Amino acid sequence: MAASEENSTLFPIFVLTLMALPLVPYTIVNLFGAFKKKAAKINCQCSVCVRSGKYHKSIFKRISNFSTYSNLTLVLLWVVMAVLVYYIKHISTEVQIFEPFSILGLEHGASDSEIKKAYRRLSIQYHPDKNPDPEAHSYFVEYISKAYQSLTDPISRENFEKYGHPDGRQGLQMGIALPQFLLNIDGASEGILLLGIVGVCIILPLTISVIYLSRSSKYTGNYVMHSTLAAYYHLMKPSLAPSKIMDVFIKASEFMDIPVRRTDEEPLQRIFVLVRSELNLDLKNIRQEQAKFWKQHPALVKTELLLQAQLTRETAALSPTLQRDFRRVLELAPRLLEELMKMAIIPRPPVGHGWLRPAIGVVELTQSVVQAVPLSARKAAGGSSEGYAPFLQLPHFSEAVVKKIARKKVRTFQDFRDMTPDEREDLLTQVAGFSNSESHDVEMVLKMMPSVTIDITCETEGEEGIQEGDIVTMHAWVTLNRGNGLIRALPHCPYFPFDKEENFWLLLADSFSNDVWLSQKVSFMDEATAIIAVSKTIQESKEGSGASAREINVAVKEAIEKVKNGSRLVMGKFQAPADGNYNLSSFCLCDSWIGCDAKSNIKLKVMKRSRAGTRSGLTADETPAMEDGIEEDEEEEEDDYESEYSEDEEDTKETKSKGAVANGSAHNKGSGSTSDESGSEAD
């Protein structure tokens, strides 16, 4: 009985220990991460972002941000631990040691007559015939009778006086810390125990499995519906113009699930009037076009109007209910656009290449949604293929301000970025009428904008050249620099109500054939993960080439240092096409900034495979290239695709490729492009 009570008493301590072992270190790690994030300010500090309240954490916003499933579960577990600690501290049950003399009210060494006298006295008080109380009966049987028997039996008394227990020397006793109702299995408790075992071991796992399977059958790992991916895959076309990407984007099933109310009709009509010029309606048949627009599915009409309200910054006309739907649309937009991008660059038969033109259109739409810039602002104007769209992402800028500074020969965004800070301040204060604080905001945002460079090589591992059918490995170092020295940062986007991380898409493509040979998403937000990945990649690459342990360590250290300085390694493999010269382009497209994309040209030479299966040598005409290792490319036309938001124009300038061909392998180091050399393909 005493052992059973002791085990039952230790059960809360046992549960508390099991909870504390994982909970305490997990909480410490989360708190450390939260304080680390709070210490490093990676968001924009300009006055526009401050006034937007996007990063201002009010008490209600802090509670809302904290109220995630994981955080609430963490708090609940700590509450349970606190209750257990309080219960253990104030527990009333104490394990009583069996002490016969104390039970009978005698001192050690009492005589037999004193023992019998004490027993008779207690029997009158606790015997069932004298006291009908059940507790008295239990006390008499469990304690008084046992104490009397242990002291009247000579052997038991000798054992007690010698070893402290009537049964003699006691060995090590072990028990299990379980509650009393589990240790005493009888009628009622047995049913409860059975129900508990069935519920915890069978019903609960089965319920969780059903919920998980029903959800996983509907959503992908990126929380995008399978029906959405199917629609995007079938609607994506190789010739899809960037201006038509919006029509595909709004076909997501997630947008179709947003309710359409009768009360939304009037505010949507007001928004339609405000954004009508952005809807690509034929002005010659405006009435028919408007009627056709409103005959679409109501969810499609609502989604497109809400997106256009974001692009044109006409959100003041939204009703409170539409404001909630508007935030929902913008919350879904980043991951849906990412999946749409994957559908554009996914390898398609027969050659297994993605499509460049729609991929660029998806990135352009993503940039416009994040920066709240209308698609019409991307039309080429004033010598800039991006139009005045890059200027509109700067604080306090408008189309009127762009026209004012254009009179001072600042016609492109790159011209504006190339100016010194003093020159920009004079231009903005004297020409545009900015105050000193407003020009300071502009300077702050310009320092936040990334500048990207690409160092890319394509080669066949272990061979001197590239032959048709070879597996070609691409190594690309993408390096990011900012004026403020940050690597990990959130973009300036005060009109986008959610935190948005910068992502880059590296594409190796043939602009002429519209083929994307390789694609990879690049992020600069997680340095630790990048270090682990680059260390593993470099080590495996060097081991495969037979390098020594010292050479591997040196190469890994150099790669880690590059990552810490703002570089990321991107690797990919593709099969070499038929023999010939290929003028490829590498694009590094940013999904958060307009005019910060990078592009470089690379010339890939593929040699014909010999009949014997050996590598054919170079001809006499190619000997100088083999000796020098570098061959300058001829002047090439700019690009094959202009942004569909731009009007057809003649090329204003020609670019010179810095690509190289050496023994059939290609190498290129490209710098970050200006706004005229962005992923809009109007470079």
UniProtKB/TrEMBL annotation:
One cellular component (GO) term of this entry: Sec62/Sec63 complex
Biological process terms in GO annotation: post-translational protein targeting to endoplasmic reticulum membrane; SRP-dependent cotranslational protein targeting to membrane
Membrane topology: Multi-pass membrane protein
Subcellular location(s) of the protein: Endoplasmic reticulum membrane
Keywords, alphabetical: Chaperone, Endoplasmic reticulum, Glycoprotein, Membrane, Protein transport, Transmembrane, Transmembrane helix, Transport
Sequence intervals crossing the membrane: 12-32, 66-88, 192-213
Composition bias type Acidic residues, residue spans: 624-652
SMART domains (UniProt xref): DnaJ (SM00271), Sec63 (SM00973)
Pfam families (UniProt xref): DnaJ (PF00226), Sec63 (PF02889)
Domain J residues, every copy: 99-164
Region (Disordered): 613-683
Keyword Cell inner membrane: no
InterPro entries the record matches: C2_domain_sf (IPR035892), DnaJ_domain (IPR001623), Ig_E-set (IPR014756), J_dom_sf (IPR036869), Sec63-dom (IPR004179)
GO molecular function, one term: RNA binding
Function, in words: Required for integral membrane and secreted preprotein translocation across the endoplasmic reticulum membrane.
Assembly and binders: Interacts with OEP61/TPR7.
Name this protein carries in UniProt: DnaJ protein ERDJ2A-like
